[in-house]
Amino acid sequence: MDRFVEHLRRALEDLDDAGLALMLVRPTLVADAVRDGLARAKGVLRDELGAYLAAWEAIGRAGGTDVERRFLLKLAGLLPSATRLPESAERLAAGLSRPGPLDGALLDAVAGISGAYAGAYYVAPPRELLVLVQAHLDRIYRLTGASGLPTHRRRVRALLSDGAAFAGWLSLDAGRPCDARSYLTLARDAAREAGDPTLHALAVASHALLLTNVAGAEPSEALWMLRQAGAQLSDDAPWEARAWLAVHTAKEYAAAGDRDGYLLHAQAAATTWDALGGGESREGFFSPGGWFSDVDDEWFQDCTLRSLAHLTDPAAEPALRAALDQPGHPRREATLLETLAVCLARRAEPEQAAAAALGSLDAAHGLPLWVDRVREVRADLEPWADLPAVRELDDALVGA
Questions:
Q1: Closest to 12 in 3D by CA, of 164, 136, 96, 106
Q2: CA distance 94 to 143
Q3: What is the pLDDT, as a whole number, of residue 188?
Q4: Nearest to residue 194, comparing CAs of 163, 240, 219?
Q5: E strands of 301-397, at which residues?
Q6: Domain count within the chain
Q7: Shortest CA distance to 134 belongs to which of 106, 178, 104, 169?
Q8: pLDDT, tens digit, 9 for 90 and up, residues 81-121
Q9: pLDDT tier at 7 (50, 70, 90 boundaries)?
């Protein structure tokens, strides 16, 4: 898997270099100077992803694990959009190098690149993917002053909002909360200018969840923002967006210790979840191929377990340990262990809580977002700061 990620990173870099070159050279030089770069990027994407898909398919036929099959599905979803990306980059570059009115083909090219990058969210390292998304976001921003039909200009703003939200979440994953806040503010404002209530609600909800991931933030402001976001979503909004927002709202009520509020919103979340589909389709980051590709039954279960842990429900610990006994992606293991640490800390079991927090830190491989979460658990363990297990956790946090 590590080798695949390295090849994916190189392919995306080749592709971005080609896209940048297309924008910088004179139009008469595009064919000779850049086409080879586009072909090389496409070849790497096609050959490397294809080879790894074949390997994962062989694993599946041999009885691979659930996590291997889930990763295979992610690659299968990424491959078609990735191999179309060079043509999209060439179309976008032509539009940028010869300014003119916006048109549907140009915006389709922008959306194609956005979708391909979004498909890499759960497989590419956040810091490296962020560099590419920032460059793409800058290109979208350059289109916001172009002339065109009102519908085309609104779509540019919507693409800008979606891309800014993508950059915001990547910034948070990369340990840059201030950058994340700026990007999510841009996402909110661009969605408002686009007249897109779904994107506006998702940007506001993302900003709320940013607050919950920053150590020391009060839950009241985040809950207020989540309620505001929920009020903006209509019944024809994408099912994934409605389910995601309902589940997170219930989870934040639990984090605030409001059992009644949690039960009310958990019921609403379960009702939405049972609907399983419906609503408009989206493109880019906030789509089933991007951010919402992990919104599944396993994710729903993990969020429910986190809520129960915050409420010190006695059912939380055995359910968490049962989930940890099943093989899974390291990121999910990190989430479950950190949730278990929260549960144990609230039950005044400091040694076990510290051990679970340390395991979460190891499983996340130093991902800055998880370091911040583990620091929050450590704050709950302050009354037991002299215990050897807590001191070991302190040493690991210093190293992280």
A1: 136
A2: 12
A3: 96
A4: 163
A5: none
A6: 1
A7: 169
A8: 555 555 666 666 666 666 667 888 888 888 887 887 887 78
A9: low
Placement of tokens 């779904």 in the chain: 198
Kindly report whether the global pTM for this prediction surpasses the value 0.90: no
Residue 83 lies in a domain: no
**Hey, is 278 helix, strand or coil?**
coil
At a CB cut-off of 8 Å and minimum separation 6, what does 216 contact?
none
Q: What six digits make up the tokens of 359?
A: 């395991």
Q: How far apart are the first and last CA of the chain?
A: 23
Q: Record the tokens describing residue 27, joined without a space.
A: 């139009």
- Do the domain assignments include residue 173? no
Structural element, H or E, at residue 143: helix 126-143
Q: Is 225 helix (H, G, I), strand (E, B) or coil?
A: helix
- Here the CATH number for the domain that contains residue 385 is 1.25.40
pLDDT score of 237: 86
- Other CB atoms within 10 A of residue 204 CB: 22
In angstroms, what CA-CA distances link 268 with 12, 77, 164, 284? 40, 30, 29, 27
Give CA separation, 141 vs 12, 87, 112, 134, 246, in Å. 21, 20, 16, 10, 31
3-state secondary structure of 43: helix
Which amino acid is residue 52, in one-letter code?
A: Y
Cα–Cα dist 319/324, whole Å: 9
Residue positions counted in the chain: 400
Quote the domain boundaries for residue 361.
Answer: 310-399
DSSP state of 348: T
Amino acid identity at 200? H
Token code pair at residue 361: 């830190």
C-alpha distances in Å from residue 349, one per residue of 73, 198, 308, 353, 390:
39, 42, 17, 6, 11
Which of 382, 298, 376, 365 has its CA nearest to residue 336? 298
Residue 107 domain-assigned (yes or no): no
